[in-house]
Automatic annotation (TrEMBL):
UniProt DNA-binding region: 30-49
Highest taxon, organism lineage: Bacteria
Gene3D superfamilies: Tetracycline Repressor, domain 2
Organism of this sequence: Catenulispora pinistramenti
Keywords in alphabetical order: DNA-binding
UniProt name for this protein: TetR family transcriptional regulator
InterPro entries per record: Homeodomain-like_sf, HTH-type_TetR-like_transc_reg, HTH_TetR, Tet_transcr_reg_TetR-rel_C_sf, TetR_C_16
Positions of the HTH tetR-type domain: 7-67
One family name in Pfam for this protein: TetR_C_16
Record's keyword annotation contains DNA-binding: yes
């Protein structure tokens, strides 16, 4: 098998694993089930990912460019962040790796750790830096960033992990924007 085919096969496996993990959770998904869905031998999952745990971590790797959402004037932070959140929540339901990590974090220590690292790196850290750069005292910026991060995680958990209705996207975005802005402004 050429490296080009190996890369394509690896990608095909990931594309089939993401929605399976999203819909059924870590425990219910089997290596054979993913392999069958991707049309490959289960041995390839072991070869490319080291097994189910490695496949799960690869399938739930989350990359979100946050600089557009948190950078800029603090007076518009709520609007920017809410727009980004709503786009993500309504963009690819059931296949969002962040949602998969949230759902699995209670049953898989690796998922909980990956989620914590993701949130520290992509949410809490950038929020803190943005608020501090807007002129807030270091301690105040840290407190407000932590409040925004906790609020967004709580709403995400309530509405996405516990499968409550997200509601109307425009109304949700307006509410998130106003609440995040209040937290940013103190």
């Amino acid at each position: 098998m050429t490296s080009r085919n190996a890369a394509a096969t690896r990608q095909r496996i990931l594309e089939h694993a993401r929605p399976l993990f999203a819909r059924h959770g870590f425990a219910a998904v089997t290596v054979k089930g993913v392999a069958d869905a991707a049309g490959v031998s289960p041995n390839l999952i072991t070869r490319y990912f080291g097994g189910k745990d490695g496949l799960f971590l690869a399938a739930t790797r989350v990359e979100i460019p946050v600089t557009d959402s948190v950078g800029g004037d603090r007076s518009e932070l709520g609007s920017r962040l809410a727009a980004s959140i709503v786009r993500r929540w309504f963009g690819a339901p059931g296949e969002d790796p962040l949602l998969v990590l949230q759902r699995a974090s209670g049953e898989r220590p690796e998922a909980a750790e990956a989620l914590a690292v993701f949130l520290d790196t992509n949410s809490l850290g950038p929020l803190y830096h943005s608020l501090r750069d807007s002129g807030l005292d270091d301690a105040v910026a840290r407190e407000r960033a932590a409040a925004i991060d906790a609020f967004v995680l709580g709403v995400s958990t309530r509405r996405r992990v516990l499968r409550s209705e997200l509601g109307d996207p425009a109304e949700l975005q307006a509410w998130l924007a106003a609440t995040i802005q209040r937290l940013a402004d103190g």
